[in-house]
Request: fold
Amino acid sequence: MEDFFYEKIDWKKEVIILVALATMFFILHSTPSMALRTQVLFMGYPKAALTSEIIDDKYHNEVDRNKFAKLNAKAYTLIKPPIEKATQGELRNFLVKKFGFFYLAEYYGET
Reply:
């Protein structure tokens, strides 16, 4: 009987953890700017993720308008971008794609 009680508690803990993780994912990807900041943070640049201003990348959004429309995406630029350690290049431009009501960001490069 005691084993059943502990199994029931373990199941509830697992559900709580899964709900908490899903909620965190939703919050961190609920807007384009939050998705971009999350991506920069996971790339290893917490200061840039928290402090850099984000603006629309007008150049890439105009030049790649048709491509971005098919991807349901938009390009953004960091005003104070982090410097990549290996190449000393600025990680300035990012592409944010919309999937339903979630946004996912990826580094777009200087193309």
The helical segments are 2-28, 32-42, 46-51, 58-63, 65-71. The CA atoms of residues 37 and 92 lie 12 Å apart.
